[in-house]
Amino acid sequence: MAQVPQTFFDALAVRTWCGLALESLGRAREEIDAINVYPVADGDTGTNLYLTVESAVAAVEAVFTAYDVGKPTLADAARAMAHGALIGARGNSGTILAQLLRGMAQVLATDGDSAHTDGSGLRLALRHAADSARGAVAHPVEGTVLTVASAAADAAGGADGDDCGAVARAAYEGARAALAATPGQLAVLERAGVVDAGGRGLVAVLGALVETFTGEAVAAVPGVHARVEGGSYTAPAVGDGPSRADAEECTDVVQTGGPAFEVIYLLEAEDAAVARLRERLDGLGDSLVIVGGDGLWNVHVHVDDAGAAVEAGVEAGRPYRIRITHFGAGDVHTTGAERPPRERVQRAVVAVVPGEGLDGLYREAGATTVLARPGEPPASGELVEAVRRAHAREVVLLPNDPELRHTAAAAAEQARADGIRVALIPTRSAVQGIAALAVHEPERRFDEDVVSMTSAAGATRYAEVAVAERQSWTMAGICQAGDVLGLVDGDVAVIGSDVTATAEAVLDRMLAAGGELVTLVLGDEAPEAIAAHLEARVRESYLAVDTVVYRGGRQGALLLIGVE
To answer: In this structure, are residues 429 and 491 in contact, taking their beta carbons and an 8 Å threshold?
Structure first.
């Protein structure tokens, strides 16, 4: 369907651009992965960029959904785009893209009440984006996405008039020309016969910006460059791209050596602490990129000592969503010939968990986890990545949240297209996931295992105790901001003022229907004595009912309760 062009850069244009960028990266993802040879040939740049933009799309959609009447301002949409990209940023290029979007948002959100901006505002946004992204990288290298971003901003600055479409097209053409020249700037690209993967992804994103303002799709951009002719590079014919053989060849050209681990985490910290962190991490490794601001940062670095990189984050503030990838010998720093591909396991469980404590518990039980922070639900691409990371022929997927059911279903469909057999168990709480994991037996037939896990989850009633953020109508009456809410099976059943008393009332209501095991998962903000109090209550009032207690960490709710 033809895209209706946007005359000005407003909230709707942000939404349209994000959606088109995701579609464009989705089409180009495999090609970009195949040409990924710098800074390490780990073949995931296209996927990382896709996941980063998918998170931005989800954040923008959430802002639009929150408006029952009217629509968000340009500032609202731009900030949501930047925040979503920041918390979902993956890999070196994804982290840089997040900073590019943040740089644009800082300009677009300058006048919070403005409904839109024109081409002059877009020029400033692209310039600030390129400059802020370059500033976020410890040691900028030419021939990368940074070069392409700077060229786009330069070209946009020379565009005539204040038409957003003309400015966007100038930026796209400037970026496309810079991309074609990247092999002449980086020897590793020249040896592989490819352009920079991150730059290729940015060109796709800028192509979506052109389509947003003109309604016209741009021509495809190839990732493989042509031979050298007279000292200059000529891009191959449109539509040419790397073959499977090209992809395999690309992984063989990276220099040997280099850090063994990629470490990524979100960090809550003050500016001064982040400045010290930059110095510390710069001394530990390379490919250092720290992006963000206003107390929230995304940290990316390649190191040999992953523990030291995480400890540095702990010293600076509060790191979470920590992801450590071991490049490994024969993986990306060598040819790969010495190490055979890892054999797939038969079956795995992939689960979304709401806190660090439960993340550890699920991992101990053998599950591959996706950590969901409060207000930061994972996107479908993140779940697909976890399914692939599990490296299994069969996967049981536990979303552990009713709001994630459709996201998990989309992820399951995408994983099935990869040839993985996936069963989605619609768990609505982490305590139902715990019950399902308890009866999981990989040796059983897949269908039998899924039925047993589904039955265990379904037989577990769930509840949570949380604090109301605002006044609202509930099934139990009107609650005020600050009230303690007891939710049973997703509906508010008790409104109180004391956390322990409310939790006890919820537990009594649940056990009135019977039960054999009570599971309590304590959040960081739960009162210290609440677990002992509830355990004593069960022991004194409900014979033959056992209680088990876990620490959930920062899970959003003060307390999760499961009754089996």
So the answer is: no
**Residue 293, SS3?**
strand
Q: Which is it for the CA torsion 200, 203, 204, 205, positive or negative?
A: positive
Q: Retrieve residue 367's tokens.
A: 């599950």
**Plot region of 521 (φ>0 → left; ψ -120 to 50 → alpha; else → beta):** beta
Distance separating alpha carbons of residues 364 and 344, to the nearest angstrom: 20
Strand, coil or helix: 371:
strand
DSSP-assigned letter for residue 183: G
Comparing C-alpha atoms, which of 25, 127, 6 is closest to residue 74?
A: 6
Cβ atoms of residues 457 and 351 within 8 Å: no
Region of residue 31 (phi > 0: left; psi between -120 and 50: alpha; otherwise: beta) = alpha
Reading the chain (564 residues) residue by residue, the pLDDT tens digits are 445 566 688 899 999 999 999 999 988 888 888 888 887 776 778 888 998 998 899 889 888 887 766 688 899 999 999 999 998 888 888 999 999 999 999 998 886 566 778 888 999 999 999 999 999 888 888 989 999 999 999 999 888 888 889 999 999 999 999 999 999 998 888 888 889 999 999 999 999 999 999 988 887 665 555 433 333 334 333 334 443 334 333 333 334 457 878 888 889 999 999 999 999 998 998 889 899 888 899 999 998 888 888 899 999 998 887 887 776 533 333 333 344 455 788 899 999 998 778 888 898 888 999 888 777 778 777 888 889 888 899 999 999 998 888 888 888 888 888 889 999 999 999 999 999 999 999 999 999 999 999 999 999 999 999 998 888 888 888 989 899 999 998 889 999 999 999 999 999 999 988 889 999 998 888 888 999 999 999 998 988 889 999 888 877 789 999 998
b or e along 528-558 (b: 16 or more beta carbons within 10 Å of the residue's beta carbon)?
Answer: eebbeebbebbeeebeebebeebbbbbbbbb
Q: Say if CB 339 and CB 326 are below 8 A apart.
A: no
Of 131, 55, 68, 135, the residue nearest 94 (C-alpha): 55
CB 310 within 8 A of CB 263: yes
SS3 40: coil
